[in-house]
Amino acid sequence: MKLIKDKSFDEERSLYHKSNLTLKNVKFDGVKDGESVLKECKNINIDSTLFNLRYPLWHNHYLTITNSTFLENRRAPIWYCSNVNIFNTTLNVIKAFRECNNVNINDSTLNSDEVFWKVQNIKINNSTINGVYAFFECKNLTLENVKFKGKYSFQYSKNICISNSFLDTKDAFWHSKDIVVKDSIVKGEYLGWYSNNLTFINCTIIGTQPLCYCKNLKIIDCKFENCDLAFEYSEVEASIIGSIDSIKNPLKGTIKVDECKDIILKDSKYKCKANIIIRENK
Q1: pLDDT score recorded for residue 281
Q2: DSSP per residue over 223-244, as a string?
Q3: Contact between 104 and 86 (Cβ < 8 Å)
């Protein structure tokens, strides 16, 4: 591994098509404002490095980034990459991660709109993510102890496991498939519409009109707060702890709940045959 240390680069494609490099305390910044400084590279270890140029890491393979910073408004920093490992790094960027494969992120912070589009095989641990339109058309995603804030997340995504996390997100999991969320708080309006095989286990769900038009929806020992008009036209098996504000026209299945303030079974477009069981009085 060749070591590049305490250097600064600002030219176009400064380290284009390099392999087997270790970068330490390097700055990609300067008046020339060169793009694609590390494009088409392989086996690159980056430590304590500053990125302030656009499109720095495209078509990279076997990439490790540690203790580094991507400055605000640096566009599209990591696209078309595989085998990416990121530790203790901050990305304040636009459109981070597009069409990547095998991405591991630990102890990091991402502030990025349109983050994680069409990415496969992602593992994120102990991290914070803020971004509108996050995790669009992703596959094979694992989140553990993640704090996420943003709208329109996980749309059209498949095969996701989320645990011990806090999601503050509107219109999440629309058209998603094969999703498990456990031991987490999920806050946001219009959760999970048009999803297939979406499961919540020991979660707290907050927000209006959750979980409508769902297929194979499973709710296992979850709490609902400020949730009204839930489960409209959904196929659902649910065990709800405590109270829910209202349930409207569930399509089929069984919903067990301690208290429901309002059950709305009228003006249905479809034949709704779900069983709603209030535990205290059946």
Answers
A1: 58
A2: EEES--SBTTT-EEEEEEEEEE
A3: yes
- How many other CB atoms are found less than 10 A from the CB of residue 10? 16
What's residue 74's pLDDT?
Answer: 75
As a 3-state breakdown, the chain gives helix, strand, coil percent values, each rounded to 5, of: 0, 55, 45
Q: Quick one: DSSP state of residue 119? A: -
Burial label, 189 (beta-carbon count in 10 A; 0-12, 13-18, 19+): middle
For the record, the structure tokens of 204 come out as 């707290």
Mean of pLDDT values over 74-85: 95
How far apart are alpha carbons 235 and 238 in whole angstroms? 10
Structure tokens at 148: 């996420």
Q: Assess contact for 115 and 95: CB atoms under 8 A.
A: yes
| Strands 185-187 and 196-201, sheet pairing | unpaired
pTM: 0.95
192 and 210 Cβ atoms separated by less than 8 Å: yes
Residue 23: partners with Cβ closer than 8 Å, 6 or more residues away? 4, 5, 44, 45, 46, 47, 49
What is the chain's length?
282
* Angle, CA of 203, 151 and 168, to the nearest 5°: 30
Residues 96-126 have pLDDT tens digits of 999 999 999 999 999 999 999 999 999 999 9
Inter-CA distances, 117 with 15, 80, 146, Å: 26, 11, 18
